Amino acid sequence: MVKMTDLPTKGGFSFDLCRRNEMLLKNGLQMPPFRKTGTTIVGLVFQDGVVLGADTRATEGPIVADKNCEKIHFMSPNIYCCGAGTAADTEAVTDMVSSQLQLHRYATGRESRVVTALTLLKSHLFNYQGHVSAALVLGGVDVTGPHLHTVYPHGSTDTLPFATMGSGSLAAMSVFESKYKEGLTREEGIEIVAEAICAGIFNDLGSGSNVDVCVITKGKTEYLRNYQLPNPRTYISSKGYTFVKGQTEVLSTKITQIQHKVETVEGGDAMEE
Amino acid sequence: MQNVEISIPTLNGWLLGYPVTYLFSNEKLKKATGVVSMQSLHIYKIYVTRYPYVTGTSVIAMKYKDGVIMASDTAGSYGSTLRYKSVERIKTVGDHTIIGASGEISDFQEIMRYLDELILYDKMWDDGNSLGPKEVHNYLNRIMYNRRNKFNPLYNSLVLGGVKNGQKYLGTVNMIGTHYEDDHLATGFGNHLARPILRSEWREDLTFEEAVKLIEKCLLVLLYRDRSSINKFQIAKITAEGTTIHPPYSLRTYWGFSHFQNPSKGAAGTW
Questions:
Q1: Which residues cross the membrane (chain A) (predicted)?
Q2: Which of A144, A148, A174 sits opposite B221 (nearest CB)?
Q3: Which of A137, A183, B10, B73 has the highest CB neighbour count under 10 A?
Q4: How would DSSP label each residue in A126-143?
Q5: The Cα angle at residue A94 between residues A195 and A154, in degrees rounded to 5
Q6: Residues B138, B166: one domain?
């Protein structure tokens, strides 16, 4: 093993472990596969715009880490993006592109277009060769009309009338393929989206909890958080959970006053810019 | 002739139950190549099923008012090639059962041999009893599980349906021996694409026409989204009156969505 001299950290990525990884791969270690972190996300184009839908379960392997997380991310007032895959990646990449879109809006003085968000996302993801594990359903309405796209972790995109992603995508897609038609009304669109997410919630173990819906039309966006709650807590005590004083037996009481030992002295100069 | 590998039937292979290759030298040739070997032979290779070669994709089935309905496509794929386009993957077993198979087609043919033999022996008793779907299911389950325990599975997922004495029955068994019954079942991709639809839209009292419509809904989704399916389906139904396996037919598909026509509208050069 070559002895590495201690270089001062200059910042940036440290490639030290790459050698170790190469050695492990050579010795026959199998890289753990990328975990699809359990999601059902869908999008659908209807008469006047797009409807996006998502479940609200975030999983860490077999454990539900967050029962009610938000998978529909804001990109711009007229564009929203659902994210499946590694939660950190979807969060970070949509935040980043959202900021880039705002700067672009300031520069151009115009409303953002969906294809702009699409191009920014796909070039970023392609650059990272699939290591940024974000599978996205991007939808919005701009001057050119309603658009719906899917973006895959390696950077490829599709333009579709209806799309599903995540581990529950097959269950949701079976609902879309049998029920979708052109020229849906807003109510029909929302109903089909909610049905597709419910199919994912009830037939896929990686998805669950509630249904989030986002309806985007020309000039108006409605983010319907927890549009449906098909998994309520059953068997709650109807009397509620109140604990009357005296219900718990008090064995002994000892009160110790807080002693201030340290005197904080205000003063000094204010922080300079 | 150097040391030759010859595959020969001997008592050893018969006892083992596997096709076997023995390795022996020229001196032992006379002793080894009798019908019953006079020599204890060195087992060189044992042949077991490791991978499927010609495969069928999903089968979907459900109970309805008068009995059980089952459907599959008629494709036999050889890896990623669509090799055979007229494979009957649903067959009758006796008077009371139909069986549908996905997975290795040659193993399905072997299973049919076992089942035809079973039904034949049952008929030979001529005692007024006949094997129903429950019994056939149990028999198959024993075969599949015992083969899996010998690391030589029959590479199939099977769906069995039938009616006997007015009782409808629908069960499944697969290559590792997992078996269960339900009101609607599917194998392979059908579990992911068809079961969600069936779970929300199946009812106990579907008429035959409604059941066919529901099954066609599932078959269409499978046709769109399963790469190894083809547009040639067979529906089989079994009721107290008997079995009918309908001739193959195709479904109408729709590709005319406006978003498919012009995906790069609004942005030249994208796709």
A1: none
A2: A174
A3: A137
A4: HHTTT-S-EEEEEEEEET
A5: 85
A6: yes
- The pLDDT of residue A272 is 67
DSSP A80-125: EEEEEE-HHHHHHHHHHHHHHHHHHHHHH-S---HHHHHHHHHHHH
Q: Give the tokens for residue B170.
A: 């629908």
Mutation site for A-interface testing, chosen from B182, B198, B200, B251 by largest number of A Cβ within 10 Å: B200
Domain count, chain B: 2
In whole angstroms, give the CA distance from residue B32 to residue A95. 75
For chain B, what is the mean pLDDT? 89
Which ipTM did the prediction report? 0.78
For chains A and B, count residue pairs whose Cβ atoms are closer than 8 Å. 74
- pLDDT tens for residues A175-198? 999 999 999 999 999 999 999 999
Task: Report the C-alpha gap between A39 and A201 in whole angstroms.
Answer: 9
* Tens digit of pLDDT at every position of chain A (273 positions): 555 566 556 667 777 788 888 888 888 887 665 445 589 999 999 998 999 999 999 888 888 888 899 999 999 999 999 999 998 999 999 999 999 999 999 999 999 999 999 999 999 999 999 999 999 999 999 998 999 999 999 999 998 899 999 999 999 999 999 999 999 999 999 999 999 999 999 999 989 899 999 999 998 999 999 999 998 887 777 777 777 888 888 899 999 998 888 777 777 777 766
List the CATH number of the domain containing B90.
3.60.20.10
Name the CA radius of gyration of chain A, rounded. Answer: 25
- Cα of A148 vs its chain's centroid, Å: 17
Q: In what order do the strands lie in the sheet with A211-217?
A: A162-165, A41-45, A49-55, A211-217, A220-228
Amino acid code (one letter) for B49 = T
Structural domain boundaries in chain A? 40-228
Candidates A115, A171, A177; nearest CB to B266: A115
Q: Does B156 lie in the same domain as B125?
A: yes
The superfamily in CATH containing domain A40-228 is Aminohydrolase, N-terminal nucleophile (Ntn) domain (3.60.20.10)
pLDDT of residue A21: 87
Examine the domain organization and report whether B37 and B64 are in the same domain: no
How many CB atoms are closer than 10 A to CB A191? 14
d(CA B112, CA A257): 85
- A228 interfacial to chain B (CB closer than 8 Å): no
